[in-house]
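Q: For a teaching session next week I want to show students how multiple molecules come together into a single three-dimensional assembly. I've collected the sequence lines for a complex. Could you give me the predicted structure tokens for the whole thing so I can convert them for display?
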Amino acid sequence: MTSTTSARPPGRPRSGVNAAVFAATLSTVEELGYARATVDRIAAAAGIAKSTVYRRWPSKGELIVDCLLDAFGPAPLTGSSRAELMTSTIRWVAAKIGEPGVGDAFAGVFSDAVSDPALREILSTRLQDPYRLALQEALDEPENRVLFFIDVVVGVLLHRMGMTGEPMVEADVDALVDMVLPHFTDGRGKM
Amino acid sequence: MTSTTSARPPGRPRSGVNAAVFAATLSTVEELGYARATVDRIAAAAGIAKSTVYRRWPSKGELIVDCLLDAFGPAPLTGSSRAELMTSTIRWVAAKIGEPGVGDAFAGVFSDAVSDPALREILSTRLQDPYRLALQEALDEPENRVLFFIDVVVGVLLHRMGMTGEPMVEADVDALVDMVLPHFTDGRGKM
DNA sequence: TCTTTTCGCTACCTTGGGTATCGATACCTG
DNA sequence: CAGGTATCGATACCCAAGGTAGCGAAAAGA
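A: Of course. Below is the structure for the complete assembly, covering every listed component.
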């Protein structure tokens, strides 16, 4: 039992600085914006060397994706009805994107992905797919409908963030809920 | 009449290559993606020197904004009812973003603006405001509602473009119309 | 022909993502 | 305690791309 599997690889173990790097990433992005939050600066803020960052993440984009995964965490799919479930999901995404640095980092890596197919694939697979699958399960909707739901919620919040530099105010999040819910609940025989 | 105003400045006149630059920008962005569509390559595709580009536009971002303004043109605010007007607007934006290079360029400059407040101001003032004002007039809605409308339509279309690399298919544009229209027409005493 | 302005060209600066190297260090095993 | 192994920090480096500067050539009008 201790030999075939990894009983722990030899050599100096990795120091547990991932959490510090994630925190440094968000605070640096919040302070300087996405483009000026260079890997050098993030590493300095985390108190490590740039080479250590590139030993753990192959690119800045993947670092950001991992950082966002850490920031979002698992989706709290709460609510007994479809309407409650969708409402809480929308508010949860809005709140997360409103957290310091998260919205900027999200919009930044999203835009990098536009001209980087490899990063787009990672963004889609590692970040979007888990939530999409969980929502498909919880809402009992086909893939294309859930993808449309994600396009709407994330797209609107990111557009507002990108255009104004500020997260969407609560009144507009309310409007978003009011707009989305009827489309996904009315006249479809699902409650 | 010929003296006080500009009777034409002396010196060599500017060659009329703006249209060629816009066309070269879109085709280069379509071929290589936003980030790899460098100013050097765009200039080469237009048959001019990079320095000529920077003589006319102070930055790549402003070049793209001008290019998008040229590509979109004035909004065709057609339709006799509010519903028709909003429908045609949504379909017009979707069609434009689906044109070769336009969606990529839009998403690219949008993401650049995330970490560049100056570019964000230009994007908001030069590109968004004209259409926002025209829509406020045509729809007789307050500014915040029109801004929300723009966030929804553009945000969704750009998110789909950024996540998949392809413009939104017609069936989903239909769903977008179906979702947006009731929110802006039902129970509000406006037709 | 002279003046003025834009042109293409080239060389250059700076920033930032990403790589390579190297001595130092931390951990486990014998 | 000695040896092996893998990570660490530091530094130097490569390359692409946005943007600038300077120059002689070309296109107009006067």
